């Protein structure tokens, strides 16, 4: 439909001058087989629409010829429309038509444009969309609002967050070569989730091919600031397949098995038990240097459409892998209220990254009017950073050196089973349904920080900052472990049908229901070393004089040397849930050059939080909201290429 951009099931496509033809299915797709190579004229017709004739369609041996056509409704006098030799419509053109006829104000970027740009990640792709900004190379700002005011869907399903304290999705997770397009809705319609005020970012993965495809590509890149230069690292590895790092910790960073489930301190454990626990931590503090190789990666994809039990069956699978080395120059300064510098540091952060993703999609049509689709995706993004900073801290009049190693793995799984059904006998009813499961996991094992210092401006050796205290600073040998698990389960069904009120007014009615359940668990533990009261001054000086690769050797943990205590706060761990139930009703009414999409969505939302205060008291919150969220979108077609839009809507930004 050239006005709504909707498929037209039941349209007739035939070869002029023959009896060969086909009827379109619920997706508006048709297939004419058995043609000999040559040039043909194709005629497309549908009741109530102008017939189109496409001339000069060339059919070659062994390859499909694609002819996409949009039909306009009949005028008072029906005439035949002829299109000269049009055989395909590029992704950009399809997206422009989609935006022109969309219910809401939107922007989009498609696969064709992505291929022309050197963008590896979805976050880099989004920088090219008008009105969208990317912060920290992963968070999306739409219309100037921060990431918590936007929402994200993957193949129509809300995706969980990979951040422990904010409601935000990290777009650096998705490789761009797994994406079909990204559409950003900047206004709200009732058939979409209402939990946004900035924008709704709709990420869609690659769809099924029309014929057999097999692609294998490799890539390599050179970074003038990194490749061939010194690159910092430390003694901890990753799981491998052949010679590829998979982005999963190989156990070197795992929290030692000797650590109990309860708090590690002198109240709960004996001195001998504390010594054993401290010595069970790996001494991988030393920072190594090597030469950074070029960045590299590859992509493999395969797909086809075939007949299965006399019905079309399609499959598509893809795998993409990339690894990169990046040296980042770091400068950090903090100022006092009088604008004087309080502390200033500079140095280098060497980050080794692994990104890979996989798709496995299946589709099966039962006749022309029923289709079942099963889409699956899994992506992994791992960063392994080694940082060294040199500077000073003015209040204590000391020069300082800061050491940091940080490994962080993020992965997202999404599985969606959906169905589309066209019932011509029930007033051309379109019925769609979708069930989904998605999960995001974040694992940050053994983030280590250490500080060395000396009197400012001197040539004295740098000393470790370990002291005799029961409350050490986490930057003095702290080791932090955390895991985040966030998963969603959802169901939705929609019904859409036309109404024939008059010759000039033919609105569409759409209604549906939605249910979504989210569960989130965050667990963290923090350990830090300190000298015991029994440690004499000479021993403290001797240990603090050791370099970063020796200060935390196993023999330095003893009842009269260093203890390892736990300093996790009760509030560092929490679990939460959100259940959302919704129903909506909307209508799309065209009249003349105007089109009005009006409706409302009702949402019941319950959010529950279980955690503790810093004092250790249980904290329970249960928040229930009931919202009626109206929406009006008006479109005026100034001419065939220009629309003027106005919208009013009420959406909601829920609790983080």
- The proportion of residues in beta strands is over 45%
Instruction: Determine the number of helices (DSSP H or I, runs of at least 4 residues).
Output: 5
Cα gyration radius (Å):
30 Å
Q: Which structural category fits the helices and strands? A: mainly beta
Largest sheet: 15 strands, antiparallel
The number of E-state strands comes to 31
Unreliable spans: 83-90
Global shape: elongated
- Tell me the helix content: under 10%
Ends: how far apart? 40 Å
| Average residue-wise pLDDT | 87
For this entry, give a set of tags.
656 residues, mainly beta, 15-stranded antiparallel β-sheet, 5-stranded mixed β-sheet, 5 helices, 31 strands, elongated
Give the structure's gist in a few sentences.
The protein has 656 residues and is mainly beta.
Structure write-up:
The chain has 656 residues and is mainly β. It is 6% helix and 53% strand. The protein is built from five helices and 31 strands. The protein has helices at residues 91-101, 111-116, 122-126, 271-280, 537-544, and strands spanning 12-15, 21-23, 38-45, 52-59, 81-84, 106-110, 132-135, 139-142, 150-154, 157-158, 179-185, 199-205, 213-221, 230-234, 238-241, 244-249, 287-291, 295-308, 311-335, 341-365, 370-393, 398-423, 429-455, 463-464, 478-498, 508-531, 562-566, 574-591, 594-612, 618-637, 643-649.
